[in-house]
Specification:
The chain contains 2 helices and 21 strands. A hairpin with a 2-residue loop joins strand 15 and strand 16.
Length: 294
């Protein structure tokens, strides 16, 4: 494709563009957006059309920008230090944008007040906001996973402990962050959600890549898959707010037998994609008795 002209001072976004006639060629995307190098890029629709989003850093100010095919624009009022990861967070109000990296505060130049974000921030469509209390490590990758219990957000990266870099991984369940322990090496660099059988019974997996050597003492070669434990439905099967009660058992058994139950849960109680099955019945009564989901 031939050498690209060096641009030491500013960033030029380029793409490999097929010509209508003749050879393919490199072309500049939208001219010169911002004088910062992108460390993360993402194409998504946040409700106002599909755009290319990028995040980067320049000195003590980081930014997220968007490109709609014609114009580059800043997304919000910037954050401090570096943006190194972008991801989409699906919500009931539509997609929202997550940015991770080395960040302490967002909205340096508005809109809205400055907020503490602790290395991960959420763009709500009008302002940057915190995602819980954030995480205490540098974020290199973010991934969101749809589960029967709701969306789970994973953040991976690294943290220096006594001058030694260590990998870090945490999960946001919609209310709080929880550390996922057991990884050894230096850092988590990338995350991806993988579903081996689509709508089949196998759960989604989080694929974790980076400079990783062991998981709970077992040797690994830089990549590992994490499967979340299956989540059963709530025991309040008839959704009347009273549980446990005999009516929940009656509604479950009637639904299992094929009867209609307005407002009840579905018969795939253990959310494994296989129903009706004996395991749904076993899991229902196990959870009713206070036990775990299979």
């Amino acid at each position: 494709c031939g050498p690209m002209e060096a641009q030491p001072e500013f960033l030029y976004m380029s793409a490999w563009l097929p010509a209508v006639a003749g050879p393919a060629r490199w072309g500049v995307i939208g001219g010169e957006p911002f004088s910062t190098a992108p460390e993360a890029m993402l194409v998504t629709d946040l409700g106002d059309g599909e755009k290319l989003y990028f995040g980067g850093g320049a000195g003590e100010v980081a930014l997220v920008g968007s490109f709609d095919g014609q114009t580059w624009r800043r997304v919000g009022g910037d954050v401090d230090f570096f943006v190194r990861a972008l991801a989409v967070l699906p919500t009931s109000q539509g997609n929202q944008l997550l940015a991770g990296g080395v960040m302490a505060k967002a909205n340096w130049f508005g809109p809205g007040p400055r907020v503490d974000v602790s290395n991960i921030a959420l763009w709500t469509g009008t302002t940057w906001d915190a995602l819980g209390g954030g995480v205490p490590f540098e974020v290199h990758a973010i991934a969101a996973m749809q589960t029967p219990a709701g969306v789970r957000v994973f953040a991976g990266g690294s943290q220096f402990v006594s001058s030694t870099e260590r990998p870090r991984l945490a999960m946001w369940n919609g209310e709080r962050w929880t550390a996922i322990l057991g990884l050894a090496g230096t850092r988590v660099e990338t995350l991806a959600v993988y579903d081996a059988d689509g709508a089949g019974p196998l759960p989604q997996q989080l694929i974790i890549g980076g400079d990783l050597t062991t998981l709970s003492g077992v040797p690994i070669n830089n990549i590992v898959a994490l499967s979340l434990p299956r989540v059963c439905d709530a025991i309040d099967f008839n959704r009347n707010g009273v549980f446990p009660e005999d009516e929940d058992i009656i509604a479950f058994l009637q639904t299992l037998a094929g009867a209609a139950c307005g407002g009840c849960g579905d018969i795939d109680f253990n959310n494994n994609g296989v129903f009706p099955e004996e395991q749904d019945l076993l899991d229902f009564f196990n959870v009713l008795a206070g036990g775990p989901c299979s």
